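Supplementary material to the annual report.
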Amino acid sequence: MEKRTVDMQIIGDWVEPGTRVLDLGCGQGDLLAYLMQTKGVAAVGVDLEFSRIAACVRRGVSAYQGDMTTLMRAFPERHFDRVICSRTVQELAEPKAVILEALRVGRALTVGFVNHGFWKNRVAMLLGGRKVRNEVYTTAWFESRPANPVTIADFEDFCAAHGIRVARRAHLAGNWRDPCPLLPNLLAGYALYDLTRA
Amino acid sequence: MTDDVEAAPSAPAAARHLAPGDVGLVAPRDFAHAAPFAFRGGQVLPGFNLRYETYGELNAARDNAIVICHALSGDHHCAGWHSPADRKPGWWNNLIGPGKAVDTRRFFVVCANVLGGCQGSTGPSSPNPATGRPYGAAFPPVTIPDMVRAQRLLLDHLGVAAVHAVIGGSMGGMLALQFAIEYPQLVRRVLAMATTGRESAQAIAFNEVGRQAIMQDPAWNRGDYALGEGPRVGLAIARMMAHITYLSDASMDRKFGRRKRRAAEAEASAFDVQFEVEGYLRHQGQSFINRFDANTYLYITRALDQFDLEESAGSLESAFAPVQAETLIVGFTSDWLFPPEQNRALALALLRAGKRATYAELATDLGHDSFLLESEELYALVRGFLDRPGTPTP
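Predicted assembly:
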């Protein structure tokens, strides 16, 4: 099974059928197309690039080209049943503002990210002395967008400090497939959170 | 919009209409609606005519129609050539044709001159049956919804059961949105570009300057003038001014810069044409008066100013409440007449109303007229919107 498929499946499991979903940083609409097929959701994506919006249009996914915070501010509280922030949170200029705004317009928020506390990532830095590269971080530093190397521990602290309730969490091992129940900040390569306002 | 759409310069002049991807030679037709037609304002015409063109064939299910809506100064001739000698093809020839983004092998394309227009549809320059002279200022005030309702009657006449998409830029975008609001059962997709749910003060202001130029011309005579006569100076000035609002600082600079006409130094007067941009605008004004009626200009700019989806329904969301169509709104970064913000607002309101809507924004420096752009990116977007799986077969 593809790495991408596992996290899409978990995200999909947390989505109620027929609900209204917003995907922050929707790219070409892969995830939303999947959720439309499997869950019959009413989907909207947001992304910055014209070519990605055009790709969404081709597959019938509604999408908004522009800034995600501007988009969310245009909606009333709890307009969406779920907001999804998959593999995007680490690249946000103001992650806290986006997460809080997502919890305003959405009844629930899914966040998925690469755990930079994973031991291999620590070792890569410690012994290799090199920037982490994997399926999410595919490029060298000089051709990468600015990114926050967030860890599971960081994220848990953030939620606790901001009164965000963690309804569900999924920690995946270094292969991004198998569950990782033990010492996730050290042993999990990938993390998914299902959040609501406390 | 401007008159700048030119045929590909590489094609030999004699056979441009035979170029692959072109609909070729086309001829306009007339739809005469013989029953009374009530305008929103309450006034009634005994009937009306719409001049229109179609390309492609209506399929057996009668659900592959694409309605093209033109802008203020546009007309029904949006693709192909009226004669091999034509200098230019229809105004959206780059978008419409066999194999093009709006593929006439698959779709039945309909484009009509709007009610109130002057290119063959009934408008202020049409004869008033009561007097035998042109209606002039006695023509009923026409609105965007009036134009749409008249076109609906044309679609019924053509036997169209479902509209695959309504497409338009600028005023055409307003018509496209209005189509989806007025006829939710009929319209499956809307593609509105460089448009707005209501004009800003700036856009109204530009229209007002154009109207004043016309009305201050003594030849306007309160709208009462014979065919082929009228406020030619005023109309030309209105067009020159409006034309600037369709372009951008960057595109005018690229096209003209400060280049001067060669003979400029030798001109008799200091105020004859010196810069190329002046000559260009004068030419635009002059060519416009030969094809456009000043009263239609007044009526249609008024219709644009009056169009206000928010006011008509209390809010944009309420205005869009009936919409069933999937909507694609496209804004252009350099459009300062109907700027991206106003296009974005439409998409956001549709989404708030729970509709399927997409907003895409193209970075161009061509101003408002960018929607006529020859852009592979734009073509791919339009094609993707129209051709998704599940679209009707020819």
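The two ends of chain A are 35 Å apart (CA to CA).
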